[in-house]
C-alpha cells in the first residue's frame, strides 16, 4: 500500500479508527460505537473512489449506530426496571467502577461496579437478596454492552463490504 496515495491513507486510518472503536466497546474507556461510526464516515467522505457506494455505506452505518444507541439504552433500561434494581444502584456502581478503574487499572472498573451495586443493594435489601439483585444489574449492563458490540461489529462488517465493492 502506497501511503502517499490519499485514498489508501484514509482507508488505513479509517480501519484503525474502526478497530479502536470495536475495542473501545469492550473496554469502556472510549466511545466505541461513535468511533466505529466515525471511522466509516471518515472513509466515506474523504476516501475518494465511488461516491454512491461509500454514501450508501455511510447512511447504513448511521442508521445502525442510531438504532444501536437507542436500543442500548431502552432495552436494558426496561430490563432494569423489570428486575427492580434502582437506577441509583447502577449509578453508584458506575461511580465506584470509575474510581476502581484508576485504582486498579482495567479490572478495577468491573470490580468497582459490582462492589458499588452490591453495597447499594445490601443497604436496600439486606444480605440475603443483595447478591441476586446485583447479578441482575450485571446482566442488564452486559446486555447493554452486547447491543453496542453487535452494532459496532455490524458497522465494521458493513465497512468491509464497502471496501470490497466500492
Automatic annotation (TrEMBL):
Database matches in InterPro entries: DUF456
Transmembrane region(s): 12-43, 55-75, 87-115, 136-161
Alphabetic keyword roster: Membrane, Transmembrane, Transmembrane helix
Record's keyword annotation contains Nucleotide-binding: no
Name of this chain's protein: DUF456 domain-containing protein
Native source organism of the sequence: Actinoplanes philippinensis
Lineage summary: Bacteria, Bacillati, Actinomycetota, Actinomycetes, Micromonosporales
Amino acid at each position: 500500500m502506497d501511503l502517499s496515495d490519499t485514498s489508501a491513507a484514509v482507508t488505513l486510518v479509517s480501519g484503525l479508527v474502526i478497530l479502536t472503536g470495536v475495542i473501545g466497546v469492550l473496554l469502556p474507556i472510549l466511545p466505541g460505537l461513535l468511533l466505529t461510526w466515525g471511522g466509516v464516515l471518515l472513509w466515506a467522505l474523504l476516501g475518494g473512489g465511488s461516491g454512491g457506494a461509500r454514501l450508501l455505506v455511510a447512511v447504513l452505518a448511521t442508521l445502525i449506530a442510531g438504532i444501536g444507541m437507542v436500543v442500548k439504552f431502552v432495552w436494558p433500561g426496561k430490563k432494569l426496571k423489570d428486575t427492580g434494581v434502582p437506577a441509583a444502584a447502577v449509578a453508584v456502581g458506575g461511580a465506584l467502577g470509575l474510581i476502581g478503574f484508576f485504582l486498579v487499572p482495567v479490572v478495577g472498573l468491573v470490580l468497582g461496579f459490582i462492589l458499588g451495586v452490591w453495597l447499594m443493594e445490601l443497604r436496600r435489601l439486606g444480605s440475603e437478596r443483595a447478591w441476586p439483585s446485583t447479578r441482575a444489574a450485571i446482566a442488564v449492563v452486559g446486555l447493554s454492552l452486547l447491543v453496542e458490540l453487535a452494532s459496532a461489529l455490524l458497522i465494521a462488517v458493513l465497512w468491509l463490504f464497502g471496501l470490497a465493492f466500492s
